[in-house]
Design goal:
Layout lengths: L18 H7 L2 H12 L2 E6 L2 E6 L2 H9 L5 E2 L8 H4 L9 H14 L2 H20 L4 E5 H18 L1 H5 L2 H13 L3 H5 L6 H27 L6 H7 L10 H32 L1 H18 L5 H5 L2 H13 L6 E5 L3 E4 L5 E4 L4 E4 L1 H4 L23 H4 L18 H18 E5 L5 E3 L6 E3 L3 E6 L6
Parallel strand pairs: 2-8
Antiparallel strand pairs: 1-2, 3-5, 4-12, 5-8, 6-7, 9-12, 10-11
Helix pairs in contact: 6-7, 6-19, 7-13, 9-11, 11-13, 12-13, 13-16, 13-19, 14-16
Bound molecules: protoporphyrin IX containing FE.
């Protein structure tokens, strides 16, 4: 108990000054695995001059997800994105503008838009896999990363980039990507070569998009892509988005959606190829759908793929690419644990929750380390039994992922095509987790032997 009679969360035992940092650098999830059994669902880590308070599990994380920005904000903790996304967007602007920009995302990802994107996703998948031979061996991770960049280019950045400027723009995105390192989170402007390449790439992308936007405006040509939505987006006061804002929002969309989706499609594949029962169930579902709709695949048909949906959702439960979500607290608040202990979290703390850890809590998920997509089937519904924040791979509440439907559609478009057209076998060991990446994914190659089906699936 502190003198004010407030009960502060227990503190992780570590050496003074650098101890907390060392514990964190060893891997935040390793630290959580060690401390949760000792300290429970709420505890504080002293990291240099900061206090990070972890709220683990649906019982204590509701405030994290639901609090208004004035109480728990993202701006300070996600500031490191600013040099990548560029000026005037997302974490570089105050909350009222950011909210409007998130409205632009919401509008660009509405069902009527998604329907058009899906048609492009399907074409991209068909074209990409038509280049595979009748049989062969591939690194699934590389293939899916590549396909998803192509699809994202088409749906988000537009056909000018996808058809003419793909190589240039992907090289620039590569530099942006490589400019976001763990050190960039603490020192985003550190003068290192990776950061100067990032800054150059950002400038060049702004020029490229300025040209595309100008040409679309001049010709009056409109397209069904996120670029077009952002060009046409207007703030409440009637102001139109600037070219620089459109570029920044597109970069943000790509950063939010590209690695997260390609990692999830790789894990989904790895699990399906190692779990014949679920692969058969997915195959059966695809057979039923081809009997019903023929070879056609569109938004509504993808939405019927419930078994595949659960297989993706379960891969994502076990391997959420965003392992840690953060906020900065601007007012004191309290949380009550499952055991009935109430803790007061003072303003000034950084508040964190971890999809990677919370998604495997044994009191929420039966046999949590097992790949068991049926845990999400009607009747069991393990992702909901402990309330809205039991399954947090896409976050939730006020800042829940706006791209969740897009991500599922994209991954389903890929995997329905693959299982309908190929027999596949995993020939490398089951992949390990690459904990060192900023967006946590699959370590090393994921080698697969494939054979094109001779007969259509039905
Ligand atoms: C499997 C794929 C994806 C995963 C696992 C994922 C995960 C997440 C998570 C955990 C958050 C919440 C962050 C927080 O609370 O701090 C988030 C937010 C967001 N995501 Fe995704 N995401 C995915 C795909 C996408 C795609 C494809 C897009 C867009 C095309 C997208 C756009 C966004 C946006 C705009 C936000 C911010 C929402 C807000 O702050 O109000 N995401 N995502």
């Amino acid at each position: 108990m502190s003198r004010s009679k407030k009960r502060l969360p227990p503190v992780v035992n570590s050496w003074p000054v650098l101890g907390g940092l060392l514990r964190f650098l060893k891997g935040p999830v390793v630290m959580l695995r060690e401390e949760y059994p000792k300290l429970g669902s709420v505890f504080t880590l002293k990291l240099l001059n900061k206090n990070i308070t972890f709220l683990i599990g649906p019982e204590v994380s509701a405030h994290f997800f639901k609090a208004p920005e004035s109480d728990l904000s993202q701006q300070e903790v996600y500031q490191f994105n600013v040099p990548t996304f560029g000026p005037g967007v997302v974490f570089d602007v105050d909350y009222s503008i950011r909210q409007e920009q998130f409205r632009f995302f919401t509008e660009a990802l509405r069902v009527n838009k998604l329907k058009g994107y899906v048609d492009q996703m399907v074409v991209e998948a068909e074209e990409y896999f038509s280049k595979w031979g009748n049989s062969g061996e591939v690194d699934l991770k590389y293939e899916l990363e590549h396909l998803i960049i192509l699809t994202a280019s088409r749906c988000l950045l537009g056909e000018e980039v996808r058809n003419k400027l793909f190589d240039d723009v992907s090289a620039l995105f590569h530099d942006l990507d490589n400019g976001m390192l763990p050190i960039s989170v603490i020192f985003p402007y550190l003068p290192i070569p990776a950061h100067s390449r990032r800054d150059q790439a950002r400038k060049r992308l702004a020029q490229i998009f300025a040209n595309i936007i100008a040409s679309r405006k001049q010709t009056g040509k409109t397209e069904n892509d996120m670029l077009q939505c952002f060009i046409e987006s207007k703030y409440k006061d009637g102001r139109q988005t600037t070219e620089s804002e459109v570029t920044g929002l597109l970069i943000a969309a790509l950063f939010a959606g590209q690695h997260t989706s390609s990692i999830t499609s790789t894990w989904t594949g790895a699990y399906l190829l190692c779990n014949p029962t679920y692969m058969s169930a997915v195959l059966e579902e695809q057979k039923n759908l081809t009997q019903k709709h023929g070879n056609k695949v569109d938004h509504d048909i993808l939405s019927e793929m419930e078994v595949l949906h659960r297989c993706i959702k379960e891969a994502l439960r076990l391997h959420p690419p965003l392992i840690m979500l953060l906020r900065s607290s601007h007012s004191d608040f309290s949380v009550k644990t499952q055991e009935g202990i109430e803790y007061d979290i003072p303003k000034g703390h950084i508040v964190a929750t971890s999809p990677a850890f919370a998604n495997r809590l044994p009191h929420i998920y039966k046999n949590p380390d097992k790949y068991d997509p049926d845990r999400f089937a009607p009747g069991r519904d393990e992702g909901k039994v402990a309330g809205a924040f039991s399954y947090i791979s896409f976050g939730g509440g006020r800042h829940g992922c706006l791209g969740e439907p897009f991500a599922y559609l994209q991954i389903k478009a890929i995997w329905s095509h693959l299982v309908r057209n190929f027999e596949m076998e995993l020939i490398s060991p089951f992949p390990e987790i690459d904990w060192n990446a900023m967006v946590v994914g699959v370590k090393g190659k994921v080698m697969v032997r494939y054979k094109r089906r001779e007969l259509p699936l039905n």
